[in-house]
Design a protein that fits this description.
Layout: E1 2-8, E2 12-19, E3 24-31, H1 34-46, E4 53-56, H2 64-72, E5 77-79, H3 82-91, H4 99-113, H5 123-153, H6 159-188, H7 191-200, H8 208-220, H9 226-232, E6 237-238, E7 241-242, E8 246-247, E9 251-252, H10 258-274, H11 276-287, H12 292-313, H13 321-324
Parallel strand pairs: 1-4, 4-5
Antiparallel strand pairs: 1-2, 2-3, 6-9, 7-8
Helix pairs in contact: 5-6, 5-8, 7-8, 9-12, 10-11, 10-12, 11-12
Length: 325
């Protein structure tokens, strides 16, 4: 069995081919481009490793084309959390950190741990994610221009500068409206995405923006349990206890996508007032003396669990469910 560790950077891919039976290693560097992917596949075929298990880390967006190209070529692909690989490298005695060493660690990790395979997202999921990323970028640019306008109105600002800011705001507002329509049309044109969004929006605290992002997440990644979702989002508590002297406070792991945690914060705050499940849990934690931020973290986790519940069951949110049980 062959394992291929790939250390991804913007310009290149450092690859390490590891044969588990003979423990032999072969390295190669190719460009992180379509031509590089083709060259890599030809090199693998030459060494009889066209079906090698590929292991790589998600590196911003630079890993996506490589992962898709190798998956489309029929190769099993695994994406591993970089923090897990760093811990594995330390635990196995790797002290140096170079691109070549990192690719070797990834290949060895694949051989020893046999990690689960990555399921590439559908075209619909990829399009939705791209639209949401672009929409959020435009929204951030718009907010910056609005802030600049407020500052300009509070100071002596030349008229041409004011007009430039106003023109930028008008343009960004127009682009934002176009992108939002594209997002809505894309979801409405796909029955599965449309149904997921409908179910999510039955949860008090989940609005259109959150439902679109969570729909994109569920369309791209499958979760077997609600706990798996909260761990992926970095909402699971990490407990630090050892012996009788170490009694650290549980903290949110924050190991997953930060933009989704940020997105869930305000909906969780709203849910502590208007969602019966989350409000009851939040008030119970406060009554037990838990800090407010700790209780809000639990509310975010509960909100994620409710999102998983309605999508996995195919049933809308029922606020009376807890009372009926």
């Amino acid at each position: 069995m062959f394992y291929l560790g790939i250390d991804v950077s913007k310009a290149k891919l450092d690859c390490m081919l590891f044969e588990a039976s003979s423990q032999k290693k072969k390295s190669k560097v190719v460009a992180n481009s379509a031509a590089g992917f083709k060259q890599l596949l030809e090199w693998l075929a030459k060494h009889g490793a066209a079906d090698a298990h590929v292991v790589l880390e998600p590196t911003g967006v630079y890993h996506e084309n490589c992962a898709m190209a190798l998956s489309d070529a029929g190769m099993p692909v695994t994406l591993v959390n970089p923090a897990r690989i760093r811990d594995y490298a330390k635990g196995t005695g790797y002290k140096n950190k170079t691109d070549k060493v990192d690719s070797a660690v990834l290949a060895q990790f694949g051989a020893k741990e046999n990690p689960p395979l990555w399921q590439p997202p559908s075209l619909e999921a990829r399009v939705l994610k791209a639209l949401l990323v672009r929409r959020d970028a435009i929204a951030e640019d718009l907010q910056r221009e609005i802030n600049r306008k407020e500052k300009a109105e509070s100071t002596v600002t030349p008229a041409p500068i004011t007009r430039s800011i106003e023109d930028a705001i008008a343009f960004l507002e127009s682009e934002l409206a176009k992108l939002q329509k594209m997002i809505d049309d894309h979801i409405d044109s796909n029955p599965d995405l449309k149904e997921m969004r409908r179910l999510l929006e039955t949860i008090p605290g989940v609005g259109p923006r959150v439902s679109a992002h969570v729909t994109s997440l569920f369309a791209a990644k499958k979760f077997k349990r609600a706990e798996h979702l909260s761990c992926y989002l970095g909402l699971a508590p990490v407990i630090k206890e050892s012996g009788t002297s170490v009694r650290g406070k549980p903290q949110m792991s924050k190991a997953g996508p930060g933009h989704l945690r940020k997105l869930l914060y305000m909906p969780a705050v709203v849910a502590t007032r208007f969602n019966p499940h989350i409000r009851a849990m939040y008030e119970r934690l406060l009554a037990r003396g838990k800090p407010k931020m700790s209780a809000l973290g639990a509310a975010m986790r509960k909100l994620a669990h409710l999102c998983f519940g309605v999508v996995s069951s195919g049933k809308p949110y029922d606020g009376n469910f807890a009372h009926q049980a």
